[in-house]
Structures
1.
Amino acid sequence: MSMDTNTDTDVDSGYADGFGHVSRTVGTIFRYVLLAATLFGLVVLTILLIYVLNDAIQPTTADSGWLLTFFVTFVLPTIIVGSYLYWRNVDAFKFGATVVGLFVVALMFASGFAMIFIDIVPPLMWFAYSIAIAVPTALVIGIERFDRRVPFLTRLGMTAGLFYFSLFGLPGPVGSELGISQVIPSIATFVQEFPLVFTDWLMITLTLGLAVAVIVERYAVQIGEERTKLVAGGLALGAVIVAAFIGPQIGIDPLPATVLASVAVVPIGAYVVGSAITRPQDRIGLLLTAVIFGGVLLGAFVVEFAGFAGPQSWVDWQFLTSPHSGTAEDAGLYQAIGGSILLMVTVVVLSFPLGVGAAIYLEEYAPDNRFTRIIDVNISNLAGVPSVVYGLLGLGIFVTYLGQPPGTVLIGGATLSLLILPIIIISAREAIRSVPNEMRQASYGMGATRGQTVRNVVLPRAFPGILTGTILALGRAIGETAPLIMIGAPNVVFSLPTELSSKVSAMPLQVYAWASYFASEPFYQKAVPAGVVVLVAVLLAMNSIAILLRNRYQREN
């Protein structure tokens, strides 16, 4: 490219071949126009969220003493300490803020897990199937370590047989189709019928708590504390057990206390300790964490002691744990929250393996021909298809053609899986494509096959990006209403679904019902804003996890 004017920095404009007239002033104006457009969008969105939050939480209804107390104990110290840390050590400030955000998000997801074990999946069933999965998994790992020369097809058949027997017994569903009665019960059935039954919290501890302890142990090894890995795992398991006894003292039953400790308290505690060991220069950031949590607890104690009334918020414990009602004052979101959780679990099980598998094939195995290029174009087009079209597709395939009952957990999850499947494929392909080709060539140079290279080199490197794209796709699925309406999901349910064939509602569908079928001034001012706030909070929590994974992946690179 040549310029017909000199290149001195004082020159404001010139002419460039292929670009025409070049002007710095025009570029500056264009930059500020983009900035103004961005700020306008952020301001409008912020005003909308504040408007909804004001209707849902109603902060102006609180006593002035309540507002002043939390300003003195929480807001003011947080601003002072946060400003000091941001000025002295930005990384420490980010560390302290990250701990607070992680704990809040983990507490939200832990509450969802507790809901599952309390009202949807009995702990005994969870315990039985956990053992039924753990036994064949341990056998397969043991066999592979004992003799690595076992042919792949033999190992695959043996794995399928062990899992089939453990989960279904003999002859299982195949025998039922052939009219053969059950001869040997499955391990899951044997455990559920065993006369010795543990308490609910102990079964959760032996499965979920033990799994968390193993993860903490591996985390200790990862940060270089291999000598204390057993101590770290033992402390993690002990903390889960202790939570079952401390929970009743603060008004929490042993079962949810165990779940909260396993999903929120122990993992975040391990992260704090590990980060404090590996990043000693950022330990001061925990001061911000202590000020935030300490200020909230101190403010709650003072207002309780002084008798100050808080805001008359519609987002309260009664709203989160109550079923739907014909009156806005008594309406709750509990069944819709449980339905959304089950739908997302179904979506993950159906879409994640298919999406990642398709991405691996298209990037690592598929030839570059016309057929593959047609598939690429169709996947990109499907990612932009309106969600209502996927609802019609689910209705036509699953309900009309396959004859399945409409509006169930399985049909809703399958329809939403179709919706986000193109997004998962595209994001997974981008993550796989970002792995440097030199790493593949180095693996091939050491004698590895393509399958070994994909499994041991490509996927570990691409997994954070794959997981980030999947979480963002789930964030879209959890907020969809049109596909669920198309497949006949009920707007209102009064009981939680307990199996895949149960009718299910969801949070956006419940909010839609309040805004349409129960349209009235009380619902518009109370239930609808409260439901929107809960849904937005869940979306922000899911997106924050995706952002955290992306940032960590970028730091590792």
2.
Amino acid sequence: MSTTDRVAATVGDYLPERSSPTWYVLALALALFVGFSIYLSLLYRSFWLTGADFGSYIHMFESTLHGQGFLEQGKYTVRGPESSYWGGHFTATLLAFLPIYALVPSPYTLLVIKSGLLAASVPMLWILARSHIESDRLAGLLTASYALNPFLWSAWLFDFQEQILLPLLIFAAYYTYSERRYIAFLAFLTLVLFTNEFTTILVGGFLVGLVVVSFRGGRLRREAPYIGIAFGILVAVRMISGWAIGQYTDASGLPTDVIAAPLQPFVEGSRVGIGQLVTIVLGNPELIIDSVSVAIFDKVVYLVLLLLPVLFLAVADELTLGSLIPFIGFAWVFAGRDVYYTFGAHYPLYLLPFVYIGAVRVLARIDTSEIVDTESARASARTVLSGLLALVLVVNLAVGVAIGAEKNAVPGTNDHTEMLEEGIDTVPDNASLLTQNDVFPHVAERPNATFSANRTLFYRYQRNNQKPTPEYILLDTKLETQGVEWAQPVRTTYAEQFGKEYGLARYDDEVWVFKRGYNGSPDGIRGNYTVEPRTYELDDFIPNDALRIDGQLVGSGGGESTYYWYGPGTMLPPGEYVATFRVNATSAGEQPVANLEVAAGTTPRPVASQNVTDTDGLETVTVPFTLDRMHSNVEFRASQAGGAGRLALENVTVQSASGPNSSRGAN
């Protein structure tokens, strides 16, 4: 036999037979891998992925590979952007990605890795299900239910995290256990525990369930040493995690603002450990009811949604219950953020493997005489379950698409995103730069780039440190990734410095490049400096003494100085402008019913105004004004001017006074 024939024969031993349904599973996994790799790459190009957590991982790998620090995140937290990720979470398996990233140092590498690992968990579940379930149809439908699970897709869309390893490792761990390959089981379980310290809570419950399963199966005497070793590994990993985190931070535990509101008054200090929370709850049992009752309807609904794709079968399994109960206890009693009990972000990657392991085990029992004692009854049960799982697949797919639509996860580049990329290029690569959450992934490879995604954490950092003074600050006030204006934390923090310590160096289409100490006139990102017209609709204004009626903000006059409405607190570059108020004013006399104002400043002061008496229907009223420097808080508002009558607002449009270059001004 030639070498080629021997290699072909060896490969053939590992490949499924041509008629095997495994090929369909592999095709599904391949389609998911390719589809999500492309989809996530397009979302990245569209500025849809964020710094927390995608950009921070890029920065971690770059800083580590170039010797600029160990897993530094570039994110402003209490510990600062130079802090290591290990100061908050311990993960050893994350380091396995470093050699791959070193070979192909690109953000796209991380997206392909993520899609590859999550797609690989699909055939791993198939192998597990097929080894337990007699019916290939049921095993295939359950695997497809996992592959199309909306919670899996939601986590797949959520940036990048080390938790992408968990489904593959957990499935492999239980498969090797079920095959009585205990050493391999312990190896995979160790990798699970070293992926993130939070896994110890779920794995601890899983091992308790394993003791019960082993006892009921009459295997406990044989398996006790291995389960005991597993518990020992769990304790060791917990100790190592605590030691490693302690090397990078003096503070440990959960911030008080992320725990449930009923528990917060009982916590002293800014952080608290799980052990302390347990002590507080045991000393005050009524807090359990108080915490669980917060948003109880949402908690129940999301738990039902988590279990629905497996037809609630998993609740009859000891392993699933053992792993879910600690998480649900944490999410429902201790946690104060809905991301836990709604299974948002990456948390499905912790839970789904245990849920589907439970479903596999329960379906396997249906094929035994312990539950259904005749072959015809078992066949009928399989048919019913197959139909229900097929229905679940359709629902899964529909919900998955709906989640993408709800998150506005529609990739697309346009002239504005191209403008933003050009604005990024105007900042020198080695300059210190502070930017917003959705821009950071595109500058995260730079050694001195930082970002803030949370105003509260930014302020906490400044309580113990001076306000950061980067050379450049880059904002995009037009970009709203996932419906969030991520520029807000940085914009609010530096409102007093913009136009003063930080001059506007370049501007175009709401892309702002500020430079520390810059005193000149701004330039355009593309040639001449211009300020585009912008229109503010009703949602941009805050009603004070007005109601929203038939698409207008409507208020009655008669008083003085009381505001009908105000807003939006926008940023405007220096220049000469005209604000055009589209209003309908009616007055019972000659006295003005309203005073239309343009105001600017931290506490906005009027810079221009125009009285309105009667417009004889819907008309435009113009208010010219000039800003001699950039302002970070500009309002367009109306106040009562003494006259009886009514004022209705439709919108406000702001544009340069004349010509594209007239808005150039001193900064």
3.
Amino acid sequence: MNVSPIEEYWSEMDMSARSRLLLGSVGGKHLFEIGINCLESDPQLAVEILLSAYAANPLDGNSAQQLLNIEALLPLFPAPVAQCITVVAANWNCPANLSYFLRIIAKRDNLKIRSYILSSIEKEPSNLFWVQQGLIYAGANSDFEFGLQVLSAEFSAQLTPAITVSKAFFTFMDGDPLEAFKLLRIASEPFGIENFAHLAASIVLALGDKDLAVSLLSGSVMIQPWRSSETLRLYDLAVGLDDKFIPLDGKVAILLYSFNKDEELDGTLGSLHRSELGDAKIFMLDNGSSDGTSEVVDRWQSEFGERMVRIDLPVNVGAAAARNWLMNEPKVKASDFAIYLDDDVEVDPDWLLRFGAAVEEYPDAGAWGCKVVDHISPAVMQSVDLHLIQPSGEEGDGPEVDLSKLAPNPFKVSGLHHQLLDGGFFDYIRPCASVTGCCHMFRTEKLLDNGGFSLFLSPSQYDDMEHDLRNCLKGEFAVYQGHLRILHRKNTGAASRVSISQEGNALGNKYKMQAMHPRSEILSIMADEERLLQQDIEKKLKYLAEKGFLTS
């Protein structure tokens, strides 16, 4: 059997780099850590990855300084980029006193934050620290016009590569793909277009040129086969998964439960009413609410008619018990698919058809989930494909469970999506360890077979993830549908702060979840998932090679 050089590349890669790159090839911090770790084992790979890490955050002075500190590295970078790194490091200075700035950030006083950043740039025009803070604020709040305002200042000519790529990104996110494409072409001259293939693909897709998007992504993978995220996106574009819509085959039960969130629930039910539900039935559980939830359910029940089944509980039994109650409703047990939806999300009209496409591609998944973004600032991703990892310093074997520690069995899920904004970097379908419970679909038979959601993790937090872990132990990993995006409502400002009891509950449930699954189980899941991810990407690379997408 013929094996393409790119397929061989993955099997022969340094094990440590491979396991990390299988999580994704995006995120400046993630790439920087991989690059540092393979400086000795694979210097060429390290140089490529470190350049890509810098390209992801070219105005970050900390990263620039760390790159400067690596002996003999900068001469291996393109000269304009090396010069830019030197200037960024020299002109990025964190002020000694940030107390006022941190205070208004904590209060989320947007007017004061914007005013303070702009006045700080005016006072210290050469200090890139304030430029970076402006871009961080702009991205977190989807205020891309403000980001472009920050970037409109006068900068040294040596900073042109960093400023131009930043302008390209913010221009695209602000809704002008044509101008963004012009800027990105300029920025790619010193950096190399392979370092911006995702952004370039998103821009040309917005301009209606899918063939060019495929060409850009395939070019980056051919030049640098370690680009796993680009490979996943390329495959989906090549086979048409990005615009595939398939009805779910069978009866569908949509399961909601709510406690005292009448306004959010109203938005969720409204988005469901606007969506293409087919013959799906909605099961609505009021978890002992005392606000206007009952009236909201009344109003929408008149709209949905017999398609909505109403369940009223006298008290709040918690999230896990509510999920279990719903899954054991006789009409739910008779369904083929059960989908849990949070009471504060909004779905797109074609959301069920997107799930149908994911089921057709991965019919044996333990669960299916999607991309979750912030309702107020949709460029901010709250959840994508989640993969089990161990924190730095806790890797490998150790005590099964150490109940004397705050983390009795340290493990967590990957968080690459927190390192960048939603510019299309996670637009793919693939297996993972877990997906968010905001929008969680199961084959009903498997859901019932898995034993329900753990009441140990009541009233909320981590019961959905723990359920996915049990599926993983049975070899039934979740699948992420990145072409489906849902909006997740959450309060802003002071109202968004959780109480001490809520924070304590979350920490307590995390502790209990870690104690429920000893280290040997987590290591087994991690090993199985790594094999699954490698098989998945190698299968996709084989298809792309056979179909001529990876030939010059």
4.
Amino acid sequence: MKRWFAVIALWSVAWAAPAITLYDQLAPTLDQVRSLQNSNPARALELLTKAEDDFRKGAGDLAPVLRDGVQQSLADARQALARRSNTDLEARIQIIKAILGKALYDNYFSALAAGNSADASRLLPKVLSASGLPSSLQAQAQTLAAANNLDGLRRLFERTYAQGITNALQRAQAQTSAVQAYLEATRAYALYLIVQDSPRARGLTAKGFVDALGKLSSGNLNGFKTDVQGLVAQAQNFLKAVSTPQSQRRSNPPTTAQTPPTAGGVRLQAPRTPPAPREVAPVRAATVQPPARPAARPANPTTPKPAPAPRPVQSAASAPIPDVYQQLLADLRFLIKDNRKLERVADSLSGAGIYSIDDWKRALLEVRGRLLEAQAQAETGQSDAARRTLAQVNARYKTAVQPLVEALRPELAQRTSRVLAQAENAVGLRTSDFTVLSGELLENGLALEGKSLGGFHSAQVWLLQTILGIPRAFLFILMGMLAFFPLYLLTLTFGGRNMYWRFLGLAFFFLLLPAMMEGLSYIGSILSDSRYGRLPFLSFLTNLSIQQNLLAQLFWGLTVLLVIIFATIGLRGIAAQFGLLQNQRTPLRRGRNATIPQSTATTAAGVAGMGAAGASAKPNPGLTSETIVEWDEEF
């Protein structure tokens, strides 16, 4: 048993550190983004990008469901920043802090269960800060934790959260401004996310909050208030359940809430919230009386006509808001005929903040723009940053682009999602890969028009899926290593005094040099990757790849020119040595008029029988004594 407690203690320490670090990095950065949204949008976007990068680097040990929720909320915050929507940005920041607060909350109770009071003391202020709870709660929590009353401590937190959810929902129900009602309902939803796995909160569901917010976004105020009324009733039941004394629950068996849940064990059913309603300028609801004119004595006493009553001005709450969801359905009906599929696609797109085909096209352009950002990062050797950007591209594609493409061309949507996920996890990305990926996103855009880039693009995507990552890196590293073998054999065989063979050897060297450089670039890609070699200073080797940048391509063109020059010089010299080319030193007439030197008389007499044959034989017209001597010198 002690061994198991030791294991749990070590496990809780491993979980506590990343959660605290992530919150300390993201929370102040997101607060700066919120404060700079109107005054300095460019700086706010830079800070939001920094928050995304920090989260990508430190979220490896976070539960996948929590990690995906934060990533999607960060992407939604980027959209809100682009739309200059203060309400949307505020809502997304609340959701991000709530999801991180869920991780901190679970880690806090896990640390207490493992007896790790040091980590619990570090986590407690962060839990209160992430949830926006009063600091006075810290003293009560520390008292219960010191007494090892974990059930009482959990009930204290759940009671505080239940009261906060109830108050926020009641404020949302009483609001006359749709924007303020949206923020209050989001506040209640954020508090619920932290305690949603409590068995005493069974009446509340994430879907109930999201549906209510969706109705408010679409302008259905009556439906929103009806849903909020039901949520208030369930929140009050939750509050009663956590406020009931233990003595009044004798008949009820002990629930599993007495033991802390596994860290990260949260359903987090629907972390995405619909976009906020448009901010409407407040107008006065009271009627404005026109100023009274000064009395004047009429020339002819007549009965004055009564002044027409002023028209009442509609308040902002009663102003009609267009149902953007119905507009989205109307746009999609031209593309999707199946009603069930139509509603499913509309629900997915509206959850991603897409309410028209134009919004969908803008989202596709945004994904392609982020892909160019990842390409620039890969081109400069920033492989980890490129991989994080690709993860954002993949997440945004799945939520904002894929649902519509999947309804029109399911095989294309699956192929694009698969190749993006493969590129996100691949090592040794090259700029040519991003060209294919950009073409694949363009193929998704053409799906609305029933067009396609053709079979050649499909073949490129198939080839990219086949060799991307380690297979291609292994292939080029192997070719780079094997390129040394023919050069060694060439030097060993023809490395003598014949300068023409040396020129030919140089031609072979420059011919194989790009293959050696390509192999070296993939070695640098693997060694600089944080998942393999973890040697980031070797990332400069990726610039040697011909597929990576313009400079390497121009260098490859120069090597081809040198191959042509050296091969021409060497082969021409060898051809001249073989007598295949006419030369001023060895004219062709000399070979034709040359006769074989006669031997001595004694030798001629000995071969008299072969005189006729010897006389009829003629020497090779291109083979001269000079050629024979030069060739024999090499062998």
